[in-house]
């Protein structure tokens, strides 16, 4: 608790007292009355600090004491997110992912979904080679660095429903001073993408076939 803020609170109360020698002890920093005020305003300052903390706790990305309430609000834990025993950063990421998972079918949506959990992925789509659309001599086309489409010679029409997610490495959650809990959270927590696999299976287009692959481990 900040001594400067305690003194500021005590000065405000002492300034409201009437003038006169009887009340001077409350205004003097070495007075008995001032020490009495410090003891009283400590409770008021604690209430104000708790109110300030409540503003931060209302944000899932910064919550500590109310994180369990945020998890309950979004339906965690569930079959995809078993948050018990995870570092606080991973628990926050799970809550934020549930809040941001509004739905979508574009590759970038699934890339962003993985990033919200702490994974780097690439989406690979497949389709049959088509004359006039596909490129001869280069059977693949890349939309961007995180999404690639392969035009495959001899592929059947149902290949359009097949897509693959390449997980480019495990998720590493580092111990953070002021956030992690000493004696409880490890210095580094390395996770495979079981939660990501579950989540992609939940949100993938119903007609599609998804394959997962791992690299960089």
Tell me the structural class: alpha/beta
Shape: rod-shaped
Main β-sheet, spatial strand arrangement: 2-3-1-4-7
* Strand segment count: 7
Q: How would you spell out the order of helices and strands? A: HHHHHHEEEEEEHE
Rg (C-alpha, Å): 28 Å
Oligomer designation: single chain
Low-confidence stretches: none
Number of helices: 7
Major sheet size, sense and barrel closure: 5 strands, mixed
Taking all residues together, what is the mean pLDDT? 80
Q: β content, as a range? A: 15-25%
Give the N-to-C terminal Cα separation. Answer: 45 Å
Assign a percent range to the helix content.
25-40%
List keywords for this structure.
two-stranded antiparallel sheet, 217 residues, single chain, alpha/beta, 5-stranded mixed β-sheet, 7 helices, rod-shaped
């Amino acid at each position: 608790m900040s001594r400067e803020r305690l003194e500021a609170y005590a000065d405000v109360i002492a300034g409201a007292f009437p003038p006169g020698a009887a009340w001077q002890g409350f205004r003097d920093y070495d007075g008995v009355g001032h020490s009495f005020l410090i003891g009283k305003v400590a409770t008021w300052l604690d209430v104000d600090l708790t109110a300030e903390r409540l503003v931060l706790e209302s944000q899932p990305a910064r919550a500590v004491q109310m994180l369990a309430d945020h998890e309950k609000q979004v339906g965690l834990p569930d079959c995809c997110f078993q948050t018990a025993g995870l570092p606080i950063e991973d628990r926050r990421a799970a809550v934020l992912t549930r809040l941001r998972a509004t739905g979508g079918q574009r590759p970038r949506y699934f890339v962003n979904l993985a990033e919200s959990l702490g994974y780097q992925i690439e989406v690979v789509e497949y389709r049959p080679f088509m004359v006039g659309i596909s490129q001869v001599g280069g059977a693949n086309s890349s939309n961007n660095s995180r999404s690639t489409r392969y035009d495959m010679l001899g592929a059947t029409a149902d290949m359009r429903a097949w897509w693959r997610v390449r997980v480019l490495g495990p998720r590493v959650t580092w111990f953070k001073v002021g956030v992690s809990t000493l004696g409880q959270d490890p210095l580094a927590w390395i996770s495979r993408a079981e939660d990501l696999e579950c989540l992609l299976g939940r949100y993938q287009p119903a007609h599609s076939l998804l394959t997962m692959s791992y690299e960089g481990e």
